Amino acid sequence: MTAALARKTEEARNLRLDIDNVSHEFDLGKTRLPVLSNISIHVEPGEFVALLGPSGCGKSTLLRLAAGLDSPTRGTVLEDGAPIARPDPSRILVFQDATLFPWLTVWKNVAAGLDARGILRDEKHRVDDILKLVKLDAFADAYPHQLSGGMAQRVAIARALVNDPKLLLLDEPFGKLDSLTRLKMQKELLQLWQRSRFTSLLVTHDVEEALLLADRVIVFGDRPATIIADVTVRKPHPRRRDDADLIVQRQALLEKLGVSHDV
Q: Which residues in the chain are classed under CATH 3.40.50.300?
């Protein structure tokens, strides 16, 4: 395969995301609550970007706009130059809670999206392949209540990846996991991204997680959110938590978030 063809194949598996001067408000009846203010973010195909900021500042709202679940009050959200107007299987949002169907097995949970699109009969192999990829093929016939928290979240990620998304949106996907499971899931997510090269937008409150996974870290201020920093992480993968440069970047990001130097 030539280099040009390889690039073309890679681009077909991901997308460019352009968020241009986006502001958003919630209608509370008698009043309107502004949550985003003039946000502009440009994410290259295959790039992994992390979003940091205070709770409730609008990060999750931004993911919903990128997924096509909501439309911005002002501004535009574009996928490869075209406005995002509705949800699409090419753009998948993974939440903090696994939100699995409790009455379905692991295999059927992962297959749900393909089944809804009417292509499961011809694409069953994709379910088997993705379960092997996330190391859950032995649990294909298990039910959600039989899984640990980390396993359930892997099912949720597998359910997203089986649709071969071009954009994977992650809303604190490891926030409710214990620390050891979280570390394992971070590593697995990174390996999946390196293999598939989908474009990714991750919301997290964990500065270290952002620095270990992302190409860039974008920091938001309080609601209505504005961007107060856009930091490139130049270290190649795999990254070490004790890397001196990452420790310096971690402290700088914490200070931008208003956390004192001695934490």
A: 14-90+167-263
> Which CATH number fits the domain 14-90+167-263, given the four candidates 3.40.50.300, 3.40.50.720, 1.10.10.10, 1.25.40.10?
3.40.50.300
The angle subtended at Cα 63 by Cα 16 and Cα 198, nearest 5°, is: 40
Give the CA angle between residues 168, 139, 67 to the nearest 5°. Answer: 15
Give the predicted TM-score (pTM) of the model: 0.87
In the 8-state DSSP scheme, what is residue 239? P
| Confidence band for 192, pLDDT divided at 50, 70 and 90 | confident
pLDDT digits (tens, 9 = 90+) for 87-138: 998 899 988 887 899 999 999 999 998 988 888 888 899 999 889 888 899 9
Taking the C-alpha atoms of residue 263 and residue 133, their distance in angstroms, rounded to an integer, is: 38
